[in-house]
Structures are given as C-alpha cells and as structure tokens.
Amino acid sequence: MEGMQAYGAGKAGGAFDPVTFLQQPQTILRIVSWLFSIVIFGCIANEGYINRPDEVEEYCIFNRNQNACNYGVFMGSMAFLCCVAFLALDVYFPQISSVKDRKKAVLADIGISAFWSFMWFVGFCFLANQWQVTKQEDNPLREGGDAARAAITFSFFSIFTWAGQSFLAFQRYKLGADSALFSHEYTDPSQDAAGAPYTSFGGNDLESPGSGGGQANSDGAFDGSGGYQRQDY
After folding, report:
1. Would you say 50 and 62 are in contact if contact means Cβ atoms under 8 Å apart?
2. Which of 9, 53, 63, 73 lies 20 to 30 A from 43 at CA?
3. Do residues 165 and 29 lie in contact, with contact meaning Cβ atoms separated by under 8 Å?
C-alpha cells in the first residue's frame, strides 16, 4: 500500500519525515522562492532609495519612480508570506484525509503559483524598464546600483521558480487519487468504527430445527381459513 497515493501524498495518518519533505522538488522550489523574495525585498528596502547631494528627500532608485520601489517591496513581502503559507500547507497536506480537500489544495497551488509567476514577470519588466531609463544625473554617486540589479535579476529568476511550482502542482493534480485506497467520501480511520452502520439479520434466514415445515406453518398461521370447528358432545 505504500505506492498508493492521492494527489502526491499517501494515506492520512502517516509519520512526518523531514528529510523526505526537504528533498521534494516542490519544497526546494518554495524555499528558493522564499529566499529570492527576501533578497528582492531587502535590496529595495535598504538601498532602493537615494537622493542627490543637494537634496534631502530620498527617491526611488528606479528612475525616481516611487511606484517601482513600492511594487518591488510589496511583491517581495507578500511572496515571502505566501511561501511560508505553502510550506505549512505542504507539511499538513499528508494529514488531510478528504480527497476533495486535497484536490482543492492542489488546485489552489496551481492557480496561486501561476499568478505569482505572472506577477514576477510584470515586476521584472517594470523594474528593468525603469532602471534602463534612469538618468545618471539622478544618481551621480552611483549608489545602490548593485542592489537594483540584484532586485531585477532575482525578479527574473522568481518567474521560473513560481512557474515550476505551478507545474509540479499540476503534475500532482494529474496523478489524482488511487481509487483502490481512497474514495471521495474518505474519512479518518479512527472515525470509521463510530460511524459504521449495524447489519440487521432478517428473520426469514432462520429456520426451525424441524424438517423445514416452519415456513409452511408460518404461511398458514392466522389465515382464517380453518374457521371455528364445532365440537359435538
């Protein structure tokens, strides 16, 4: 039964193996995406705002466009939280006993991962474009250039890590559930004993220890055909 799985995980109630969990491709991609989001957020938040020597107020390093920095910070922070949420779901996923709930979780993984891949594509194009049109006189000291390029680079890499997560989730969805082990109404085995229906025994299956005339006697009982017989004294 070890080969029987539903949406990439075995039967509910199994022991959690951290080594096996960390070796799974989807776990590796989630951790890599998590690290990329930290780099992007950190680069823009720490070194993404600069000013000219004669200015006090700081502006976004990407063409002095505040929206570019806000987009990168927002995407980095939200991707960080999303990766943590999916890692927690992956840990809990083998304990989900309902196949319907597992299917919903896998479908959510496909959709959300594909959405993040698209958003990182938009972010990469946006940041790269704003960096390309940035004027040198806006940053004469060339501060934060490495951080800006790092944010653009890891935004590009994040497109493929999230797309890979969506692809692996789709592969799990195609696997589906093994009907030999799971059913759509599968519940936890500990709850089966309490909810098991009782089997009733029909009285027609029992016969009297006689020669088989019990059935005939029961058929003729109380039919009223004999009536009342008068006895003469």
Report:
1. no
2. 53
3. yes
**Residue 4 pLDDT > 70, yes or no?**
no
In a domain, 202, yes or no: no
Task: For residues 145 and 207, give the distance between their C-alpha atoms in angstroms, rounded to a whole number.
Answer: 95
pLDDT of residue 50: 86
Query: Is residue 224 situated within a structural domain?
Result: no
Taking only the tens place, the pLDDT of each residue in 207-228 is 444 444 444 444 444 454 455 5
* Phi, psi for 211 (deg, rounded to 5): -85, 20
Give the position of tokens 């969990």: 21
Containing 50, the helix (H) or strand (E) segment is strand 49-50
- Close Cβ partners of 75 (under 8 Å, ≥ 6 residues apart): 37, 40, 119, 120, 123, 155
Beta bridge partners of 50: 59
Q: Considering only CA atoms, give the Rg of the chain.
A: 35
Judge whether 123 lies within some domain.
Answer: yes
Q: Given a cut of 50, is residue 169 above it in pLDDT?
A: yes
The tokens describing 8, both together, are 């990439």
Which SS3 state, helix, strand or coil, does residue 134 take? coil
Give domain status of residue 134, yes or no.
yes
The whole domain housing 66 covers 18-183
Cα separation values, 76 from 28, 83, 155, 174, 224, Å: 18, 11, 9, 30, 90
Instruction: Tell me the one-letter amino acid at 2.
Output: E
Query: Which among 203, 168, 202 has a CA at the least distance from the CA of 25?
Result: 168
**Both structure tokens of 22:** 């960390």
